[in-house]
Amino acid sequence: MRKVYKDPKELGDCLKDLVDFYLDDIMTYDKLKEKVTVLFNANGDRLYKDGNIPIKISNILGNIRVDVINKVLSQKIS
Prior knowledge:
This protein is mostly helical. Helix content is 68%, strand content 0%. Helix 1 runs parallel beside helix 3 (55-61). The chain is globular. The mean pLDDT is 92.
């Protein structure tokens, strides 16, 4: 997994795969949290702008995955 993504589609695909691994019980929540935190720290505004995931990325992810990532990031930010 790369840390920095300049293309929102690639970042969205990476996040989609991570959340799918978590939802399929291949990855633990703690490991998901660790990887999403690394992506958040490296990509900042490309991943989370004004308290929301940008539309381009959220369209790739879908509602369920966006909810999982928001849960992880809300714990990180607060």
